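User: tokens in, sequence out, please.
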């Protein structure tokens, strides 16, 4: 049975590994679809990044569990101006690290955690939300559009040099 809940510090190691595995699988799938090599992915570094994000002040972890096992997650944080380098933007939540266990892709778990994250953010007083995802991630694009997110027209590159695009949504 699928349940969603707000996570806590004790969840950090498990969901950090989940995020690292999902990120590695997404990158491998994108390379396969593009007909390029698998590229370099360091799961230890990815897991460390996830643990730092989860430890941040004010971060809100949402976990989906299937039969008691974490199967999907996302994090909500206060959005900062200048793509994270500036001051807090009042009323704007930043949704990040949406991840689903690759063995459970396509089962609606991404929608479950994003929907719960939106509700939790609204409950914290946020009125708008934003997120970024890789341009090559067609699965995420379909999910976000289905949940009412729209492309803002902004683009950038992630820490791996991969093109990303920006989505927004009223809460």
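Assistant: Sequence out:
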């Amino acid at each position: 049975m699928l349940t969603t809940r707000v996570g806590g510090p004790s969840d950090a190691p498990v969901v950090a590994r989940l995020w690292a595995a999902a990120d590695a699988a997404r990158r491998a799938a994108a390379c396969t679809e593009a007909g390029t090599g698998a590229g370099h992915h360091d799961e230890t570094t990815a897991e460390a990044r996830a643990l730092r994000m989860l430890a941040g002040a004010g971060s809100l972890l949402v976990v989906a569990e299937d039969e008691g096992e974490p199967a999907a997650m996302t994090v909500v944080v206060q959005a900062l101006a200048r793509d994270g380098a500036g001051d807090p933007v009042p009323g704007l939540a930043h949704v990040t690290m949406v991840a689903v266990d690759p063995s459970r892709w396509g089962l609606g778990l991404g929608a479950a955690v994003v929907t719960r994250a939106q509700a939790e953010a609204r409950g914290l007083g946020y009125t708008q939300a934003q997120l970024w995802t890789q341009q090559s991630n067609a699965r995420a694009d379909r999910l976000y559009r289905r949940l009412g997110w729209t492309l803002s027209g902004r683009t950038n590159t992630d820490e791996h040099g991969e093109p990303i695009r920006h989505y927004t949504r009223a809460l």
